[in-house]
């Protein structure tokens, strides 16, 4: 039996701890602890294309981002012999003592291996699942928000309580107990409880974001980045190191050991070290992106899936902290915010999706975003901004992808909608006009009445008027002359109408529109019937 370390073959006895499997291809998996024997000759190649593992006591499954599974280790009961129907399109895997579960992207669960306790007898009416978990001899699936269980049930591990039949977002399985996490951050556990592994402490009844289960212990990751463990403690499983009490982003558990991934990419390990499973390989020279644990083995992934987001100028953004601002946009017009999503990892990113919180903000979700991104690939995302009301607008854009550790990635959006009908500062110029004239020193939030008046006068001198000024133009008064033939003074008033001040057409008056007031002045009253109209009088 041989083990690959770097590019050389070593006897197993020569190096049991800190095994580093160097890959010439896509990713770097580091391994410590027990092996899954027999080791196939192409294991290094298979792992170099994989970004997710499911580890058991003596067999394991690897998955590529494209959904191709690979199983190795002890093949007792055919637990590593993949069924023909489950060689592609697999999104998740779980391994029990002697059985394996594969979850397809279509939600179909395939089970194989030992079936003495009906652990591979998937219910025919299961429906479309979104997650799977495996205990020693029982199986779990998450269907909708409900936990479905089958297999060995001596300790009640497959008797799903009412609390786990709605609102569940994640599942885990120990040797003979089952665990669920609700959307409210509450942990639910049932099954064998001899060591208190199913007795959820008060601290795990709220603010939990992730769960893991060992053989006879249970772990929870709190929203504050701390790890909580309860159940058996014969190997120090419950003795959470101080380093795992803050800044933790993910947890994993083997039979009697645990791993915690920190925000900075470092890993904390504790519990049983019978095969060196809590030793962090010294060869790791970059931040760890994913941790996997099972049985007496630990795996650490670096350089696999890494999604980064940049603004349109190439500056990197920070998830949950960065803000992208749109330029001011006129109400009724359309603008946009652009940013770049980049795959900095060495494997393709699948399931890429970009969504924007809706409402009355004026921002909407982008179209045309690719669902996958090759290693080193980029895509420019355009978020439309079409406000219908004025004011400051905000929304949140969420970038998510399968298996990417910093998914979802969120960025705040901001934008200002300006109206051509509103004059916020009261200086006579509407908000949108002042933004358009910003290069002349105008500011829609500052009263610049004097500056506005000066500009109006300068424009009037060259014949440019505002609509509001048309009715107040200072026209010269006409002088009437006597008609030499009739001896009378007369004038003909020709009323004309325009909608654009460029082209005028006759606007015939009717007798009912014309009256003499008490002072003998000619008064004309009429309705135009148009929302926007200008009138002039031509004196003939």
TrEMBL record:
Keyword Plastid set for record: no
Pfam families found in the cross-reference section: RCC1_2
Coiled-coil portions: none
Cited SUPFAM superfamilies: RCC1/BLIP-II
Assigned keywords, A-Z: Signal
Signal peptide annotation: 1-26
Descriptive protein name: Uncharacterized protein
């Amino acid at each position: 039996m041989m083990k690959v370390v770097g590019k050389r073959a070593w006897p197993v006895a020569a190096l049991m701890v800190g095994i580093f499997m160097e890959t010439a291809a896509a990713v770097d998996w580091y391994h410590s602890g027990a092996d899954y024997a027999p080791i196939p000759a192409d294991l290094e190649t298979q792992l170099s294309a994989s970004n997710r593992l499911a580890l058991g006591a003596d067999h394991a499954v690897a998955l590529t981002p494209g959904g191709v599974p690979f199983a190795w280790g002890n093949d007792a009961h055919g637990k590593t012999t993949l069924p023909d129907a489950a060689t592609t399109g697999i999104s998740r895997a779980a391994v029990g003592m002697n059985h394996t579960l594969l979850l397809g992207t279509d939600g179909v669960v395939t089970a194989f291996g030992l079936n003495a306790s009906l652990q591979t007898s998937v219910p025919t009416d299961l429906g479309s699942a979104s997650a799977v978990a495996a205990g020693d001899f029982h199986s779990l699936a998450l269907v909708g928000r409900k936990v479905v269980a089958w297999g060995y049930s001596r300790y009640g591990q497959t008797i799903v309580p009412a609390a786990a039949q709605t609102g569940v977002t994640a599942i885990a399985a120990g040797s003979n107990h089952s665990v669920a996490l609700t959307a409210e951050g509450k942990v639910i556990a049932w099954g064998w409880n001899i060591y208190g592994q199913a007795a959820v402490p008060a601290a795990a009844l709220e603010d939990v974001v992730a769960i893991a289960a060992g053989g006879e212990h249970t772990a929870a990751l709190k929203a504050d980045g701390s790890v909580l463990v309860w159940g058996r403690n014969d190997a120090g499983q419950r003795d959470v190191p101080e380093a795992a009490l803050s800044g933790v982003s993910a947890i994993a558990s083997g039979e009697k050991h645990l791993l915690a991934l920190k925000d900075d990419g470092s890993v904390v390990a504790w519990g049983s070290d019978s095969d060196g499973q809590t030793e962090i390989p010294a060869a790791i020279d970059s931040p760890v992106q994913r941790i996997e644990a099972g049985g007496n083995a630990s795996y650490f992934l670096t350089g696999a899936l890494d999604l980064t987001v940049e603004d349109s100028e190439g500056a990197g953004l920070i998830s949950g902290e960065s803000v992208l601002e749109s330029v001011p946009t006129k109400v009724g017009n359309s603008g946009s915010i652009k940013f770049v999503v980049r795959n900095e990892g060495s494997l393709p990113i699948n399931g890429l999706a970009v969504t924007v919180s809706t409402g009355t903000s004026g921002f909407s979700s982008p179209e045309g975003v690719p669902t996958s991104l090759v290693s080193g690939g980029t895509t420019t995302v355009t978020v439309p901004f079409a406000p219908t009301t004025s004011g400051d607008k905000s929304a949140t854009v969420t970038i998510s992808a399968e298996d990417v550790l910093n998914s979802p990635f969120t960025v705040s959006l901001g934008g200002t909608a300006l109206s051509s009908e509103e004059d916020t500062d009261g200086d006579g110029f509407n908000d949108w006009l002042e933004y358009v004239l910003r290069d002349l020193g105008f500011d829609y939030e500052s009263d610049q009445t004097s500056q506005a008046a000066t500009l109006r006068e300068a424009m009037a001198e060259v014949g440019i008027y505002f609509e509001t000024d048309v009715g107040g133009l200072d026209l010269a008064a006409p002088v009437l002359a006597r008609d030499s033939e009739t001896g009378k003074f007369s004038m003909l008033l020709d009323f004309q109408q325009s909608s654009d001040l460029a082209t005028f057409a006759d606007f015939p008056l009717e007798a009912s529109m014309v009256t003499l007031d008490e002072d003998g002045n000619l008064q004309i009253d009429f309705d135009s019937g148009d929302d926007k109209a200008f009138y002039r009088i031509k004196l003939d």
